[in-house]
Request: fold
Amino acid sequence: MFLKRVFGFLSIAFLCVDLLILAMYIQTKYNQLVLSDKMIDNAVSYYTSNGIEIDTDIIESEIPENPIYTFSGSNYDVADRVSQEIASKMLSSTDVSFVETPDGVVYSFSENNKSIAAFKVYTDGLGFEYSLTGFESKIEQIPVLLFNSDSEQASALSSDIRKRISSFVSCISQNSGCEYTVLGSLGEGDGIYVYIARNVYGTYLIEDMSAVLYFEENDLKCVSGNWIFPEIKKSYFEPLCDGLNALKKLDEAQLKKVISEKITYTYRSSENYTGYLIPVWKIEYIDVKGNRNIQYIDAIKY
Amino acid sequence: MKEKKDTVKYLLIFITFVLFFAMLILCGMYINLRINGISSTLPEVPGDDKWVVTGTGYNSNASTLNLVSPTFIGYKNSSDGMVAAAFDNEARAELNDKYRKIITELLKGKQSKRKFANQNELIQFIDEIKKSDKFIYVNYYNEIPSSAILTDFSDLESIYKHDSFLIKYVFILENDNRNIYGVCINENLEVYLLESEYELLYDQNIQLAYNGVRGFVPFEFASFTYPEAVFTKSFEADSVMMVPSASFYEFDPDGDNTKELLDNLGFNRNLVKSFRSADNTGISFVDDGRELYVDAINSKMSYDCHNRGIHLSEYLKYDPKGENYGLGDILMCAKRFVNSLDRLLIGGEAYPALTGVYTDGEKVSVNFKYFYNGILITKEPYDLKIEFASDSVVGMEINAVFCDSGRYTDPVIPQKLAMTATDKNDMPENTPIYYNALYVTGTGADSEVAWISRESGGEN
Reply:
């Protein structure tokens, strides 16, 4: 009975202390990591008085805390494993052979001694191609700007197509789940091109780390793009600059209207075969000549 | 019944332990947030790869170091009053950039020395400037030649023609026509007025964007003649880590870094001979009259060309058309010379900024000290000294220290409060007293910021 009372008392005491620390933590975090409304209002009125259109909602009030992700090695190092995954998940093939080429390695998938698909991994960079045998890819000829980025159309992709995208992405993303973002689609009915980007985590995607997939009658016919095959790991943290300071790095004389700003990731490699995925501010704006521009601003303070 | 009681008891014990461990975790998270200002517990990017995320490598000479940098930069306007950039990279960089553009235009324009009938008139003039409605205010560590500022921003021709004068304090103000003009004051309270050659309007919004943005702290002028400024409130300053470069830099004659260093100092790498003391604390590189000596214990490097100096044209790639090289050329050469050195040896993330140019009639010494966001990192009278004679670089001394940003930020006590504790009785009357911040640190340990005061040209 006595023990029960003691532990009952301790439970309540610890609960109170936990709640108190939690409240202090939330309040401190809010004070340190959120820009006040006054700061944002001041900035907006400053830009407005200089003839630059900007909404208060555009400026991110939270100071981002996105971690830095890394990966080791190259696509070539894990190409064997990726090709095995493609063979088992995408094709009913168990026979995989490869041939080294001056610019990479080509894997051939065959069934009953008949070649059914090929997968090429380039040694220079992160490029790759996949296509069914005899299928002539025309992906390279499609400018990505043609893709309809209307989110409604992107979400209108059939569940079969979505399943196949997920399945393929899980093959080429080693131990990283299959997080990707559909950036757009092109075509209807028989032939559909889908443009996807690799996510680091959540909805944060890597700029220029994308692929175009071509489907005919819900079958994946070919894929081409850049992708990180090795496992991506959450590794480091560096303080990031807030959205206000990011905006201030733009050349005000060239600004007419700020459309959006958000954190996204970019890829850089070090000399010791470690790839870094680094948060950057992506700011979209219209310049004084009326052109729409995108500028990437380093988010890491230095 | 007993079983049920036992179950409740064990459940309570379990809950107590869960809540206890939750408390420990929350405490850790809270302390981390308070100390580091972040809620992440991930480590920093390793030093070797820092250049990947920042775009600048420690040993990369790609980013050009500027010759001069203010130790204090602030402004006054109607909404914010007088505020100055604290020791924060982001806040300083923006304002510094704006100031640099303006001062360059003004220095390229008309300059005149203002004459005063008497001392009272001079003091009244400075006092009126301090009370102006709006201005940008800049303060250098010591007085520096105006041509040194131009070497950072201008074309060579204008430096060559520039008639230099000394600058310690600069005010950028607005005249009745809304044009910008500058007032430069030096240690002897000589006042120079700067005007642009063409219309340069004072931008009313020049500082409004900084409203409320972190990194700006109120300041006021210390209550004596010299427009020396002090922060009136506390703020957070970044900590730094410092290590003697000699503790990790291998002065190996076959190493790429050392080869490059010797090349830059005019050694013939095929003929250079290296000697090491028996205890490995002294390393000497010798080549026909040139010597580079490294004192590994004190992490000092000294370079002497004796009679075989490196001609200025080696760095400048031009000659002064039959005339002697001027001060502007010497400063430009010093800038290029500093930029040719490995940053691992000259402060790392701290930068060497010009603190003075001195001459004994024969030699000209150009002195630098290392600053990290405007804070001194050593107590040495100078951290880097380059000596010139007969249009040649003839010697150099380096306090080889590597500085990196630390993990923490530390609150500093208001400078004004700290300065009231300074004993000024020991200082002669009418001697200008300069105020600065200095990192005090143990080797390799994270540092703390201390406020210092010193007499003109001295250290304290």
